[in-house]
Amino acid sequence: MGPLSFGSSSAAIGLDIGTDHIRVAQMRPAGANFVLSAYAMVDVPMGAVVEGEIVAPESVSASIKELWRRSGVKGKDVSIGVSNQKVVVRLIDLPFMERAELEGAIQYQAQDYIPMAVEESILDFQIIGDYMTSSDEHMMEVLLVAAHREMIAAAVQAVEGAGLRLNEIDVSSFAVVRALMGGEAGFFPEEGDASSATGVIHVSSGITNITVVERGIPRFNRVSALAGNQFTHAIANVLNLTFDEAESLKVKVGLPDVEAASSQLPIDVDEQTAQVVQEALEREVNKFIAEIRRSLDYYLTQTSQARTIQRIILTGSGAQLKNLAGYLEKGLQAHVVLGDPLTRVQVPANLQPVVTADRMGCVTAIGLAMGGTGA
Ligand SMILES: Nc1ncnc2c1ncn2[C@@H]1O[C@H](COP(=O)(O)OP(=O)(O)OP(=O)(O)O)[C@@H](O)[C@H]1O
Ligand SMILES: [Mg+2]
Fold it and tell me: Which fold, 185-339?
């Protein structure tokens, strides 16, 4: 926490630094809901963020400053999210101990569970619950988060270089879950039903976040580089186009409609090109589905509780790829719904156009701001 403590009426700022875009949302709590007071996004200079990791902090700082000029955000204390291959989330079972004791012990326990050196990592944890084994051992479930120290340092540098202060660093996927599901606890079908869990798939440009949530708590997270940029690259490669040309075709054409008898193609793309685009996208999406399947299956074999994942919530700008939801529904044999991060957010008229246009992309910034208010 910074020097300012956010009281219940204070506005909090969520800053989502992504591979393509930086987004900011400022909100204050209003009962069980939130009121948005600022929202904006800027493009990230090419190459400054790679697969969710900041590689050119100065350049990101300059973009953040630009974002502050444009957005009307008031304040300097921000909550950011991190999401890339250098943040890992693991659910681990340990013999029961008190929180204070675990704080000391986690350094020694963690190495068995994370792929990075503990000395090079920043660790955090959340105790999810405790239970007795059949042989009467008292155990607990701990959600361990490990983040590569230098990766975090680059994020801190980018934020401070823009003249801001860091209030909190969150795991981006936790912010996504908070925005989409935070208010739902209590009337979920799986609430109380220990055999079912929800998958949350957030597709953006550099990364896809695959998260499994049980009774409102994220219990598994995996970051994959199979995301929007990969889909665009596949089109660029097969048609020998620039990235921007391929991007435009991707958005226009999308995947074929799995249900429809005849496909509706955009009028300004010839049929042969559209078919090549769709074939390239289909190949990528099949890999994408296989990757998600592996993650979900892995989770189900690790956990003692959930046996099925019946519902998938899909979000992120990349979720707008035409017919992606239908492909996932078929490929994963689960009910796929598009997530809505705005169910608990009042958006004033002046912000409606920008927020509505970015309804799928705004979720992380919204969830980070919610977290900053203490929600
Ligand atoms: N209508 C659309 N159809 C298909 N893809 C789309 C559409 N709109 C946006 N996208 C894709 O969404 C991606 C951009 O997502 P977003 O701006 O959320 O990424 P980011 O937050 O900057 O990056 P990341 O979170 O991966 O670090 C791009 O790959 C873009 O092609
Ligand atoms: Mg993003």
Answer: Nucleotidyltransferase; domain 5 (3.30.420)
Torsions phi, psi of 180, nearest 5? Answer: -90, -30
Nearest-ligand number for the alpha carbon of 48: 1
Alpha helices in 134-241 (DSSP H): 149-161, 172-181, 228-239
Of all ligands present, the nearest one to the C-alpha of 21 is 1
Query: Could you tell me the pLDDT band of residue 193, with boundaries at 50, 70 and 90?
Result: low
Residues ≥6 apart with Cβ < 8 Å to 86: 53, 116, 147, 148, 151
Residue 38: Cβ-neighbour burial (10 angstroms; 0-12, 13-18, 19+): buried
Instruction: Spell out the domain ranges in the chain.
Output: 87-147, 185-339
pLDDT mean across residues, the chain: 92
**Higher per-residue confidence, 227 vs 304:** 227
Best of 20, 53, 172 for a ligand 1 pocket test (most atoms within 8 Å of beta carbon) = 20
Q: How confident is the model at residue 267 (pLDDT cuts 50, 70, 90)?
A: confident
The residue nearest atom 16 of ligand 1, judged by CA position, is 204
For ligand 1, atom 4, the nearest C-alpha belongs to 321
Query: Three-class SS of residue 79?
Result: strand
For residue 87, give both structure tokens. Answer: 């943040």
Give pLDDT, residue 191: 46
The pLDDT value recorded for residue 302 is: 84
| Cβ–ligand 1 contact at 318 (below 6 Å) | yes
What's phi and psi for 76, nearest 5 deg? -125, -10
Query: 3-state class of 267 per DSSP?
Result: coil
| pLDDT (mean) for 71-84 | 95
Fold of the domain built from segment(s) 87-147: Dna Ligase; domain 1 (3.30.1490)
- Cβ–ligand 1 distance for 183 under 6 Å, the answer no
Quick one: pLDDT at residue 374? 84
Q: Residue with structure tokens 């994963």?
A: 332
Q: Tens digits of per-residue pLDDT, 123-182? A: 999 999 999 999 999 999 999 999 999 999 999 999 999 999 999 999 999 999 999 998
Taking the CA of 84 as reference, the closest ligand is 1
Distance CA 218, CA 266 (A): 39
